């Protein structure tokens, strides 16, 4: 049976890239539901320096994954065209560079988000620890048994507004000696 060519007028719009208007190679569908070849998106990203949809300018947020189901469908319908384009793409140094750049950009972005999550968790742990130890003092020791250090750390925990009382309290301790 004869293979259909991308030049065919009956190229199904759902099998065409919105960037190059040719048959889709490694199609990715963005959150906005616009579909492009992965390499077309990489070239667009390289030129525009923005991670937005070339069609509607909506942000991608995540690395555009290849739509495997659509890729197989397009491969089945336009096998030789896809193969021809694929070998062109692989030979194109500029496309390879853009693809690598896109991948690196998202790796860096992922690392950044991981750091933010880690630091938030660590901060939350310290906060909980402080909270628990403050409950500890207040519930296990009656206030009359607090030593000056307990009072100082309690004033510490009260936050910046207690600063003046803390200073006054510390001076009181010094004079008392
Ligand atoms: Zn394309
Ligand atoms: Zn879009």
TrEMBL record:
Keywords per UniProt: Membrane, Metal-binding, Transmembrane, Transmembrane helix, Zinc, Zinc-finger
Residues annotated as domain SAM: 146-177
Transmembrane segments: 112-132
SUPFAM superfamilies: RING/U-box
Gene3D superfamilies: Transcription Factor, Ets-1, Zinc/RING finger domain, C3HC4 (zinc finger)
GO annotations of cellular component type: nucleus
Residue ranges of every copy of the RING-type domain listed in the record: 17-56
UniProt-recorded Gene Ontology molecular function terms: ubiquitin protein ligase activity; zinc ion binding
One of the Pfam families matching this protein, by short name: zf-C3HC4
GO biological processes: proteasome-mediated ubiquitin-dependent protein catabolic process
PANTHER family assigned to the protein according to its UniProt record, in alphabetical order: BIFUNCTIONAL APOPTOSIS REGULATOR
Protein name stated in the entry: RING-type domain-containing protein
């Amino acid at each position: 049976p004869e293979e259909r060519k991308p030049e065919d007028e009956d190229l199904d719009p759902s099998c065409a890239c919105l960037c190059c208007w040719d048959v889709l190679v490694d199609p990715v569908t963005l959150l906005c539901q616009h579909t492009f070849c992965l390499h077309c998106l990489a070239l667009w990203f390289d030129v525009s320096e923005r991670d937005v949809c070339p069609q509607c300018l909506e942000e991608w947020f995540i690395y555009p994954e290849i739509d495997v189901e659509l890729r197989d469908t397009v491969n089945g319908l336009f096998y030789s065209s896809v193969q021809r384009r694929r070998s062109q793409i692989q030979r194109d140094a500029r496309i390879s560079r853009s693809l690598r750049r896109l991948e690196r950009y998202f790796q860096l972005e992922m690392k950044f988000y991981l750091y933010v999550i880690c630091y938030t968790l660590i901060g939350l742990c310290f906060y909980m620890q402080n909270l628990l130890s403050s409950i500890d003092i207040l519930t296990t020791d009656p206030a009359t048994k607090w030593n000056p250090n307990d009072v100082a750390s309690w004033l510490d925990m009260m936050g910046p507004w207690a600063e003046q009382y803390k200073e006054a309290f510390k001076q009181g301790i010094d004079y008392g000696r």
